[in-house]
Structure formats: structure tokens, C-alpha cells
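Margin note from the TA: students keep mixing up input and output lines. Inputs are the sequences; the output is the structure of the whole complex. Example:
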Amino acid sequence: MARVGGRADDELRPIEISRGYNKYAEGSVFIRVGDTHVICTATIEDKVPPFLKGTGQGWVTAEYGMLPRSTQERNQREAARGRQSGRTMEIQRLIGRALRGVVNLDRIGERTITVDCDVIQADGGTRTAAITGGFVAMVDALNYCRLLDSPGETPVVRDWLAATSVGIVEGHKWLDLSYEEDSIAQVDMNVVMTGRREVIEIQGTAEGHPFTQAEMMELFALAEKGILDLIKIQKELLGEVGQYIGRGSVK
Amino acid sequence: MARVGGRADDELRPIEISRGYNKYAEGSVFIRVGDTHVICTATIEDKVPPFLKGTGQGWVTAEYGMLPRSTQERNQREAARGRQSGRTMEIQRLIGRALRGVVNLDRIGERTITVDCDVIQADGGTRTAAITGGFVAMVDALNYCRLLDSPGETPVVRDWLAATSVGIVEGHKWLDLSYEEDSIAQVDMNVVMTGRREVIEIQGTAEGHPFTQAEMMELFALAEKGILDLIKIQKELLGEVGQYIGRGSVK
Amino acid sequence: MARVGGRADDELRPIEISRGYNKYAEGSVFIRVGDTHVICTATIEDKVPPFLKGTGQGWVTAEYGMLPRSTQERNQREAARGRQSGRTMEIQRLIGRALRGVVNLDRIGERTITVDCDVIQADGGTRTAAITGGFVAMVDALNYCRLLDSPGETPVVRDWLAATSVGIVEGHKWLDLSYEEDSIAQVDMNVVMTGRREVIEIQGTAEGHPFTQAEMMELFALAEKGILDLIKIQKELLGEVGQYIGRGSVK
Amino acid sequence: MARVGGRADDELRPIEISRGYNKYAEGSVFIRVGDTHVICTATIEDKVPPFLKGTGQGWVTAEYGMLPRSTQERNQREAARGRQSGRTMEIQRLIGRALRGVVNLDRIGERTITVDCDVIQADGGTRTAAITGGFVAMVDALNYCRLLDSPGETPVVRDWLAATSVGIVEGHKWLDLSYEEDSIAQVDMNVVMTGRREVIEIQGTAEGHPFTQAEMMELFALAEKGILDLIKIQKELLGEVGQYIGRGSVK
Amino acid sequence: MARVGGRADDELRPIEISRGYNKYAEGSVFIRVGDTHVICTATIEDKVPPFLKGTGQGWVTAEYGMLPRSTQERNQREAARGRQSGRTMEIQRLIGRALRGVVNLDRIGERTITVDCDVIQADGGTRTAAITGGFVAMVDALNYCRLLDSPGETPVVRDWLAATSVGIVEGHKWLDLSYEEDSIAQVDMNVVMTGRREVIEIQGTAEGHPFTQAEMMELFALAEKGILDLIKIQKELLGEVGQYIGRGSVK
Amino acid sequence: MARVGGRADDELRPIEISRGYNKYAEGSVFIRVGDTHVICTATIEDKVPPFLKGTGQGWVTAEYGMLPRSTQERNQREAARGRQSGRTMEIQRLIGRALRGVVNLDRIGERTITVDCDVIQADGGTRTAAITGGFVAMVDALNYCRLLDSPGETPVVRDWLAATSVGIVEGHKWLDLSYEEDSIAQVDMNVVMTGRREVIEIQGTAEGHPFTQAEMMELFALAEKGILDLIKIQKELLGEVGQYIGRGSVK
């Protein structure tokens, strides 16, 4: 079984990231990973959740949504249904944890960065595209608010960050699954990794086919390769701004 | 007081409408009216609301939403808040009525056309942009499903349809208000009109300054001018497909 | 086609407005427009919405509801259903805007006037009856709280206010539609107007039959006639209190 | 301590019950018990809850609501708040149980009687007024639908039904408490009773002052007296229709 | 008709109350009344509802829930359904009132005691088991927080408190109904009573069979017997702690 | 830094699993992992979600909840708050996926197994305890309904299943974290594994400290050890019933 368009097993789909997509947000990108299109906006506000008031520490959070017709069949609008689905909640919690994982919250003061990730068109890998694009939007927002270039010793953003999915489809181990591939995958794994190749989050799920440790390691290596490719794209895109991003030093 | 960029009183902002913006929807456009950007997708499904079951008649409805950071300040996500605001409900009801107003529901069979209008960036006039763009998405969807070109005597889509806003700002009567203009307008009016210059909906509201009948008529004339300009753009855009659109014959 | 009971095309249904209907509210009326019966209570509280705190300015808002059996078929209770319908939201926003349109919010201090309009029996025109009756309840409440008779130059209530519906039924243009008439109307228009014959709000909707500018103007004239009749009734009813109502001078 | 207006300890407030208050409902009354005003409408529909489908048996249920300004301070509208309070739920369950208690559900077929009780003005005893008035509305609805006068052996409505409150206020045992009395009562008891002086429901609550069995019995006797007075009023009111009401024979 | 297991008409099911069931709560018990199993935890927090702020007075409240499979058929989880049922609300209001009825709120300062009653297995009488067990958990929590043994003249807990149900089943008057018995009972009564045999709450409901005053008194006597048995068990269980519980003196 | 009670790095807390804890559920256990206590009930019903109707295939799903005072501070009851938190949704989706991963859905017919996991006391690892205990409850339920011992070639339950957590705390890699340990962990990983040592789900999250691939593998080995210990306990507990559980053969 070959991949659509002759894509190699370890090949990402074409990536396009447009910065400054929204004229109001402190940072924003439109990220396209193949036919998966996500708008990410980063908003910085001078407020924190109650549990952080008075600590001098900030917060990073994310929200996720899909337009009703971002999918093959139209989905009910969550605002009309009156609540977010479990899937939505799970994904936005993951994005928030991932971004928080590379930000030094002590350095941004009592501010909240909210990264909204809205899926315009979904073709697999929306959550990982949201993390990869959301990272750029967040960095741009921090830069815009002059929170990046302070002379402190520890960097505000500790490391680069990107995410991708890998999976096993009819025995093949593939990088960056499209929806069609994902829907028949026996194993599905999402990996969030930093520029220093450290893991922020790994989630692997067997869909009817439990996997061995050896398979897990192979998938992991594939994800690592893809993430390093994504971070290369982020570095080119951010240019000068990238100099303020740390190299993984932990507080 | 002059308009931003030297715009004339009766001049629309630059309009761009891209068709086929979404690969799944039967019809879709991305409409830009100045800095107001709206994605409209039209979905056709083989089902109708309960009150139409067994009547052989179809339905047209609309839903409206704003991305949280489509506005200057971030708004709470309606899906997270657990309900749609009164403003959202009012707008989506208006869009639905407007589109329904030019469709011959008897001719589409027991099908529902749902036009989703999602505001990516808001700079005034989102509801009228949604109607103008949503009309094109709906026509494209009907065409795609081969519901337009049937040889029946009465056309499925009875007439062209567009909408715009007009208002009085510091005594000036202006067409197609931007957010900045709208927020200081004394009178605000939205008009939905057909190609034959018949009204589908008119909503005029005094914001602190009640208006006379004479003022109402002047505003109406301004709106009419703008709508005819918009319909001209729609006609160029739809090209051949436009031949299936009626000239206003009422059932 | 003739109207029920031989009513003339430009004739209102019998109106009855009883003041002081509720012993707790600062102002209250029971308004009967034919078989449409609405209780309007006006409550004045020493608080304002967050966006007005510290501005010295007040607010006027309205809420609308229907008893479950105010209609021919019983409707589900909105409190039991867990949310207000889009129709309810749209109507209460209209009533609030209309009343706000004649009140000088700077003159009432940081107070909120809430006008509750509850439909006991619905036979068409509930929203316009609510505005016509709600105006009287609001004036009575302002008078009760001694907010009307202050010696300031600009009146607190700038002008008289009433509303009615007009429509086209089988080609006839009729004033003050009953439910039966409304349900077969091709065009339906609600007009909210002041004593000086200025418009606060106009909403005209084509129900399957787009209307021309000429038809719109005829309907408007019919509404104007009805509203002036209603304001005459309000003036008789309010008697002395009416002297504090302005003649439309704009701030 | 004497009661307002010199009312005797065992004296009801003035009662007025107007039948046929609503032109749509199968049965309806406006009941006034002093300054407590409640509209009760009874709707009969040809449907039953799922657990009764196919059993040939009907159902009686009630819903209760208060207009926002039925009370001294304005209360938030439950429809706007998005849910009914615990108090509302508790009261409507009580009214439903009480009415169900005198109806032979086997005799009405697979129909549901919904009695809506909406409080226009509240001055204590709204739930008991709702039961007393709701009974009349229900009987009228059954009569209107020709469900009362069938020649079966067991009556559809087994007995008369009314309710009142009693309480201990500063040591005095009083019948039919007003809001002012109720708010300082040490003990508060609601009794629902039939024409044969049998109890359908008794609810007695100590408000800070537990009561003895002897006090309970005294209160009960007071309630019984009041309820028999209320049933007398119901009998006069219903006239001929009353002949179809049973004398308490149990199925 | 005899009771299951030859239980006497006035015999309680076997009672087991385990204190200190939960390692976090200030007070907690696991109460078993036959096959009805309820976990009661009492939490004491330094906060009060808004209406008590600044009064120096505390509050006692209760919440009630059933595990989805505490019943014969699985019930939908209320958290998933998005709201508590009317039954749940009614029960938790009853438990709260009952516990509040024996606590001197002036003596506990601005603190709230929340008694959570979660039904693990339901076999009739869950609300009365919750009151009987919740009382012990509350006393333990007050003792743990050193709020019981203060040297004030009026006791914090004014009296012992327990509850049970009684009913008429096929003419028999029975104490402490199991679910099977309850489901066929013609009359169902819950009584909450203190150690001095004073009533805090009585709720009697006819299920198809109205009851006479004589029957009511017989049921009441049966309940009184059962409650005194329950209080005896509470006294043995609480041992030394019981000395701080008052003998019913009213504030 | 040493573990509480001198526990070894690779040592589970004491485990107790009581079967048949609930008299109504088809299968039920009370599982204690140290001070984490969870009730798991498995309900089998003859219905499936809409997307499976007519496929002959069954479904396995899970729901998760925490009693309000299962935690150190009392949490708001989700039923009262009106919705489940993102954390709850995420956990119940994980439990459902895990259990589904070892069930041959084709073999159980159009039935749904719902495993309710209610946390009575939480001290870390509630989701993994729920999976370990829920598996036993599910097997017992299948056995009770005679769905396990059918003579088909492919087993209904394909393999044993258990889960545990591992983490890095101040540089130490520890198995089965308690709440205290978890709250200061730099890395937290949950692993769900079968008897054949295949992975059903792995979720590793960096809490401020990204982890290397080498650390990930060490943690994984630790989890594997713990899970095999847990499965040993399950095998002893289930005894004869265990013979019907497959050895991992994939459909």
C-alpha cells in the first residue's frame, strides 16, 4: 500500500505558515499542513486565573474549535449544542500543556497568553498543526509585547516546539497521517518535542492493534525526524526573532 | 469629517469573494469586505426539520459565529460559555430569513441547506457580508448538487441577493460602515435586497438619534446603490451559473 | 378579503392599558391589544452593567417571555428547556433598544431600569404591545422614584414612544395584524416611533414576497397613523405625568 | 401580636377565582388569595410520557413559574439563568402529585394534562393557591374535552381538592400565612386535602423551632378548616360541573 | 402480606454506621440501612453564602447524588446530563433544612458546613439514611474543628437528629420501607425528628390512596419509634462526643 | 529523597480488589490502590450508539466521576456545576478506549458495556486504578451475562489489561505515584498494557521538565513491571473465569 501522491513514509505534507494573519491579535498565523488548515491567534492579557493572583507568575492556555464544515460531513456547532465535546476539551488541554511546557511562566509577569486554534479545514493532524502553528503565534505575540527580548538570564521561551503524528497503517509506519490514513491506522501516536529533541508530550493509542515496545520506538524515531523538519521551517520563518528562544535550559 | 482613506459617502469598501474555499462543502466562499473577513460554507443534506417532514418542501437555514479574536479585544468563545449570545441568534436568524427569501423551497425537495458564516476578522458589516457571501456559497452548492439547472418553470433561486449597511455619522449619510464608523453612528440600517431592487429585509435602528422619514429614504437609496454594486460583482463572479437565477418571479 | 369584525385597514384593535397592576414594581401596566395581553413591569435598581460602572450613566434593558399556554398550542417553558429561544432574545433586545432610544441615560444616574414583558395571551403583535405598554410602565417607575420631575434642562424621557405592526395580506395593507392575519402575511413590518414622528426602529421582512420601495412607504404611513393613535391613548392615560416627557429634543 | 387587618387566626384571605381567563387553554383560572395572584391553565394533549406508552393510562403534571417582578425584589428570570431553581422544581412536583392524587389515570386514556401555574404576584402561599386554582382549571379542561361526564362507574376526578398553609408565628397558630407572616414563622405547614377530609400531602417544616406532635395536630386542624372553606368556594364556582366529581371512592 | 425476612412492622432494617470513612473530610461516615448504602462527608470551610456575609453567622447545606448504578437499572449520570433532577434538588434541600434545624448558626461563625450524601447502593430510604448518617458526619466535623466543645451557654448542636420513612402497604403500616415495599406503598411518609421527640420535618404523600388523620397519627407513632431507635445507635456510636449535643433548648 | 513508608522505586502500593461490591450491577469491584479508592460497576444493556445500529457489533464505554470530597479540598459537584470538566472527559475517554482495546466488539452482539468508575477517595492514579479495576468488573459482567464462555474461536476478551502511572520525582524514577509524589513530579506517564506486554495506550507529559528518549524508556520499563504485577493479582482474583480471556490474538 502506497501513500497518496507517492509521499515517502517519513515525509511531511507541504507546510505553509503565514504570520500576521489577523490584524487585531498580538500574534497570529494561518498554518496549512497539507489540506489541514488552522488559524492560530495569540492574545496577551493583563490577568491571570485566580490560583495565580499575587504570585507574579503568568499563564499560557489554549482553546480549540472546528468550523462546522471543516469536516467531510457537517458537524453540529458546539456553541449551538451548548457545550464542547470531550474531544475538543482533550485537544485544547493538550495544546495548552504543550505550549506551557516551553514558557518560563515566572518571566512573563501576571499575564495570560491565550492561543485560539480554529480549524478551517480538517484533514488529519489538526492538534499537532495547532501546536506547531500556535508556537509561532505565541512567540510573535511575546515579541510584539516586548516580553521576549528582556535581558534576563533565563529565556522566556526555553526552546523551540513542534508536534506531529505518526501511525501504523497496514503494517507501514508513516509520518504525518492524513485523515484518510488516520482513519484506518492500527496505531496512532502524537509527539510534541523541543528543538533539543526532548519530549514534552507523547500519546500513543492502539486502535484495535496493541503495539510492542519496538514498534513504539520506531514510531518515535519517525516523529522525531518530522518534528526536527518542522522546527527548521519555524526557524526560517521567525528569522531574527528566533534569537530570543532558548536552547532548552531548564529553570 | 471625512472617511478613512478618502472613501466617498456612497462607496463600498474593496470586495473580494473567493469561491471553492473549502474542499468538503458543497459550496463555499471567503468574502472580504475591507477588513471584514467571513468564511461562508453551504451544506446540503437530505433531511428537513420536523415541521416539514412529508411536505416535499425543503429548508434554508444559517448559523453565525465569530472566532474569539476576530475582534479588537478577545471575546469569550461561545462554545466554552455554553450558549450563543442574543446578538448571534439575531444575526443568524436574519441571514437565514434573507437567503430563504429568494429560494423556492418547493423546488429543492426535502433537503436542508445550512449556510455557516464564520467571522475570521470583524470590522463592521459582518452580517451583511455573510448574506452577500452566503448567497454565492448557496448558489454554488445548489449547482454542485445539480439542483439549479432543472427544467422547471419557476427557478429554484428566484433572484440575486445582497446586503449592506448604511448609517448616519455626525450628520453624514454613509454606505458600508466600518466598525469605527458604526460605533459612532447615530443611525444604523441594514438592507437586504434582490436584483430586481425589491426588499427582503430592512432594519433601521436609531442609536440615540431618532430619524425622520426623509432620512430613512435617503439611507435606503444609498443602500440600494451599494447592493446593486454588490450584485454586479456576484454576477461577474458566478458567470455561467448565474443564468439559472431567476429574475424575481414570485411563486 | 375583509378583516375579522369588519375592522378597517387602518384601524387598531381595541386597546386597554391598566396602570399599577402589580403592587411591588416601581411601575407596571397590563396592556390588552385585542386578544394580545401583556404584563409589563418596570424595576429600577441602583446598579449598572460592568461597562457603565463609574460613568455616572444609567441603563435601560428589557426581558420578554411567554407563558406556556399563551398560544394556541402549548409551548415548552423556556426555563424548563434551559434556554431562551432566538425569537425571545431578538424580541427582548428590540424592546430594550426601543425604550433606551427615548431615555437620556445621563440623567438617571447609575441605575438600571428593567422592563419585564410577559405575554399572558398572544394574538399577534406581542412585541409592539410590549413596547407601547412598557413605555408607560417605565415612565410610571421613573415618576415613582422621583427621577422624572427634576429641573434639569434636558428631559429624562425625551419623547413619547409606541409601536405597532403593519403588513400586506393578500395584497391588502393592514394595520395592527392579529395572529391569524400575521400568519398569512406576505410582508410584515414593525415600526417604533416617537411623538414627534421620528423613527426609533423599523424592521420589515418579506415572507416569500419581496416588497418594493413604494409598498414600504405605504406600510410606513399606515404604521405612523397607528402609532399616533397609540400615543394619544398614552397621553390621556398618563395625564399630568405626561408633562415631564420631552418633545424629542436630542441631547 | 395581631394579624394585618384584624384577620382571625383561622380566617382565610379573600379568595377570587375567575374561570376561562385564557382563550386558548382547555381550562384556565386566575386565582387571587389576598395579594397572591396565580394564573393556572390546564392543557390536554394526546400524548403520554414514554413510561406510559401502550398502557392506556394518562398522566397529570404541573409546571410552576414566577414572573421576575412577582416579588418585592426582582428575581432573575429562570429562562435567562438557564435553569429552574430547586424551589421551583420542588413546588411543581408537589402540585403535580397533588392533582394526580385525585385523578383516575385509567379513565382519561393516553392523554397528558399539564397544569401551568404562573405567579403574577406573590404574597405567600403561592403553591397552595396553585393547587386550589389548578384543580378548577383541570376540572374545566376535562369537562371541555368531554372527559368528565362519561358514564363509567368510577369517576374520573375522585374527589374535590384544595390546599392551604398554616404556621406558628410568635406562638400563634395562624391559617393561610401572608408573605410577611410566613417570613417570621417558626413552623410552616402545607396541607393538601380532599373533600372527604383525607390527606393527599402534608409537609411541615420547622424553621429554627422544632414542633411537638400536639402543635402539629393543632396546625392540621386549622388547615382542615381552611381547606373545607376553599372547597366550598370551588363547589359554588363550578356549579353543575361539580356533579361529575366523585366523593372519594378509591380505585 | 408479610415483610421480607419476617421483619416486624415496627422493625428497622440492620443499621451500620462507620465513622472516619474518608481520610480528607473533617467528618465522614458510611451508613448502611439494609441494602441502602450512603457515604456522607461533612466539609467545613471558612466562607458563607453572600446573604450571610458580615453577619457573623454560619450556614449548613447538603448535596445529594446517586452513583449511576446504585439502582436496579442504570441511571444517566447527572453530571453528563448537565443538570440535577427535580428529585435530587428536592432531596438535598430536605437534608440541608433538616441538619440546619438542629444547629445554632450563630455559634459556628462565618463558616459553611457542606454535607455531601452520595448513594452507593439504593434500596429505599436513601434520603432518611442520608440525614441519619449526615448528622453523625456533621457532629464529627464540628468536633474535629473544635467547634463543639466551646464553653458557650447554648450548645452548637441543639439536639440529636435522625430520620426514617414509614408507609402503608396493602393496609399494613410499616416502618423503614425497602425499595420493593416503597414502590407498592399507598402512603409514604418521611419524618425527621430530634432526641426530644420534636419534629423538624414531616412529609406525607398519598400515592393513589388519600389517608385519614387517624392513619397519619399511626404512621407518625411508628416513625417516632424508629427514630428513637436510630438516635440510640447514634449515641452509642458517638460516645463521649455526644456530651456536647444539646437537649433541644431553642435559641 | 525516599518514598513514604520506605516504598521501593519499583514497588506498587498495596492493592485490594473486592468483587461483587454492588448488588445490582452485572459486574462490580471496589478497588483500593493505597489510599486511592474507586468503585467500578459494569452495566450491560441491549442497545448500541446510533452509529452501530444494524452492524451486529457492540460497544464499550466508560464514565468517570469523583465524589466532591474525594480530594483534600472539596471540589464542586459536576452535576451541580452543570457540566463535566475537561479533565473528567479526558479520563473517561481514556478508560473507554483502554477497555475497548481488548474486547472483540463483533463477539458481544449489539450490546453496550458501560463501566462507571467513581472515585471515593483520590490519592493519585485514579485513572489507572479505574482501568485495572474496571477490567475485572467488565469481565465479571460478561461472565454473568454468559457472553464470555461461548465456543467461538476468537475470544471475546482478547487479553488481560491493567494500567499504572510512573514518573520522575527529583531525578528518581518511581512506579505508581501517590498524589503527593505526583504533584511534584517533573514527568508523569500513564501506561495501559496487556498480558502479552503490548501497549494499548501510553501518555507521557513533561511538567516543566522535558524528558529524553532514554528517560522515557526507563519509565516505560518500570510501568511494564508494575502492570505485570497487577495482572498477576487480577489472575488470582478471577480464578476460573480467567480461562476465557485470550492471550492477545488480534482479530
